[in-house]
Design a protein that fits this description.
Blueprint: E1 2-4, H1 7-19, E2 24-29, H2 35-47, E3 50-55, H3 65-70, H4 75-85, E4 89-91, H5 95-98, H6 117-120, H7 124-139, E5 143-147, H8 151-163, E6 169-173, H9 193-199, H10 201-215, H11 221-234, E7 238-246, E8 259-268, E9 271-280
Parallel strand pairs: 1-4, 2-3, 2-5, 3-4, 5-6
Antiparallel strand pairs: 7-8, 8-9
Bound molecules: pantoate.
Pantoate (PAF) binds near residues 30 and 128.
Length: about 290
């Protein structure tokens, strides 16, 4: 496994892959890797000859300085995991390399950046779009894999890729879950054992409850949302939002929509959990994912 600590080193290796006509798949990460990240790597291995992973705690996507400072950095352990998975190249740039003094350009994806996660975390999606665009320009992969757990991020990246003509196939990978149903996330490490095992799984269970209610024909989305928020708050969460949206464009869901997504975010202690479930009303029961 090759480590590239700066842009020049990365470019040299990528040029080599291209000159050998090898296809490449890229998995960008913030590090602190878990099985969810490794499932993205495996998805990448299904499609390309060479797998490139970046580990970069991107300062511009953190809306709170304390959150950036506290974000767990576990690079040595991450590199062991990536080597075991057979990753070819890991890009580990410094913040100075990615954002040299004076850097001022930003990528904005209008509309989608301001709702849901963007509403709760101002500036977050501008930071994500900017770093992903920079990484795409540097790596120039054929494919790039993103987790469906961050549904809105995946949608934003697809929009940006299409609008800026990167020519990269964006692949979504299913959310990896703990056996309790809790979506895997580096932020789960902020939970204590009781929160993680007994309380946090109720968040996913609530999204499932909404999904099944919709599949049973309940179209009173506002009431489903507020019932869930009240329940979660009684269980010790501080719900940020629970929303039923159109899965194509994240607009507020109407009773006529067939492709829906139930998205949620809730604080539990020091962890901000996010999760989502898609609901396809058109498909026969049990085949809606
Ligand atoms: O999802 C993440 O881990 C980050 O937002 C990403 C895509 C690596 C950009 O920093």
């Amino acid at each position: 496994m090759i480590l590239a600590n700066d842009k020049d080193a990365l470019r040299v290796v990528m040029r080599g892959y291209r000159s050998n006509a090898e296809t490449t798949a890229f998995v960008p990460t913030l590090g602190n890797l878990h099985d969810g990240h490794l499932s993205l790597v495996r998805k990448a291995q299904d499609v390309a000859d060479r797998i490139v992973v970046s580990i970069f705690v991107n300062p511009t996507q953190f809306d709170k300085a304390a959150d950036l400072a506290d974000y767990p950095r576990t690079t040595d352990k991450d590199l062991v995991l990536l080597k075991e998975e057979g990753v070819d190249l890991v890009f580990l740039p410094s913040a100075e390399d990615m954002y040299p003094v004076g850097s001022a350009a930003r990528v904005e994806v209008d509309g989608i950046s301001d709702i849901l996660e963007g509403d709760s975390r101002p500036g977050h999606f501008s930071g994500v779009a900017t770093i992903v665009a920079k990484l795409f320009n540097l790596v120039q992969p054929d494919y790039s894999v993103f987790g469906e757990k961050d549904f809105q991020q995946l949608m934003l990246v697809k929009r940006m890729e299409a609008d800026l003509d990167f020519g990269i196939e964006i692949i979504g990978a299913p959310t990896a879950r703990e056996s309790s149903g809790l979506a895997m996330s580096s932020r789960n490490n902020y939970l204590n054992t009781k929160q993680r095992n007994d309380i946090a799984p109720k968040f996913h269970a609530e999204l499932q409850k909404i999904k099944y209610a919709i599949l049973e024909g309940n179209k009173d989305f506002l009431s489903l949302q507020s019932t869930s928020i009240n329940y979660l708050n009684q269980q010790g969460f501080k719900a940020d939002y629970i929303e039923v949206r159109n899965a194509e464009d994240l607009s507020v869901a109407s009773a006529e929509d067939k492709d829906l997504v139930v998205l949620g975010s809730a604080w539990l202690g020091k962890a901000r959990l996010i999760d989502n479930l898609t609901v396809n009303i058109g498909l026969p029961k049990g085949e809606d994912g």
